[in-house]
Amino acid sequence: MLNRDVAELWSVLFDIVTDGEKRLASHFEAHQLTPPQFYVLKTLSENDGACRIGDIARDHHLTSATMTGLVKRLEGMDPPLVLRRRNSQDGRSVDVILTPDGAARFVAVQRALMDQLRAIFALLPEAERRDIITKVRLYFSVFSQRFPLGGLS
């Protein structure tokens, strides 16, 4: 019984993740972004629109050189979604600044994703929505505490 439940949950989670990746990629493509570009915009948005390029690279487990290439492509878009400038306190460091167009693009993708989720949740009664959120939150909390990312083997 336990093995069957574990296998069924794994199958459902795998379907959710793969479907979610496809849907996200479709949303990003509709807004002329790649997933890594979107995540750079997200990081900047979460950091009041500015962040050191090295910090963004670390957050996304990328090299500074790889992040520089991503940022250059975002900067080269028409209109530019980010700008780069030398850090005023450390001249060796480069800050990435989210432009108003970059912020608008991030919000547009986020809004499209939320609208899709809202449409699905609207089909469910409030009690079922709350139950889903509570159970997913509990699963994630227990799983992440029991098996922290650094402890994977």
Features:
153 residues; Arc Repressor Mutant, subunit A; 6 helices; globular
Care to describe what's here?
Strand 2 and strand 3 form a beta hairpin. Helix 3 crosses helix 4. Strands 1-3-2 form a three-stranded antiparallel sheet. The mean pLDDT is 92. The longest helix has 29 residues. 67% of the residues lie in helices and 8% in strands. With 153 residues, it is mostly helical. The protein has six helices and three strands, in the order H-H-E-H-H-E-E-H-H. It is globular and about 60 Å long. It has a single domain, classed as Arc Repressor Mutant, subunit A, CATH 1.10.10.
Helix-strand blueprint:
Elements: H1 2-30, H2 35-46, E1 50-52, H3 53-59, H4 64-75, E2 82-86, E3 94-98, H5 100-121, H6 126-146
Antiparallel strand pairs: 1-3, 2-3
Please summarize the sheet with the most strands: 3 strands, antiparallel
Strand order of the largest sheet: 1-3-2
> Could you name the CATH class?
Mainly Alpha
The count of β-strands is: 3
Strand residue percentage:
5-15%
Radius of gyration: 19 Å
Order of helices and strands: HHEHHEEHH
Q: Flag low-confidence runs.
A: none
What is the total domain count? 1
Q: Within the CATH hierarchy, at the fold level, what is the topology? A: Arc Repressor Mutant, subunit A
Structural class: mainly alpha
Determine the CATH superfamily: Winged helix-like DNA-binding domain superfamily/Winged helix DNA-binding domain
Q: Can you tell me the overall shape? A: globular
Termini gap: 26 Å
Secondary structure tally, helices: 6
Helix content: 55-70%
Rounded average pLDDT? 92
Per CATH, which architecture? Orthogonal Bundle
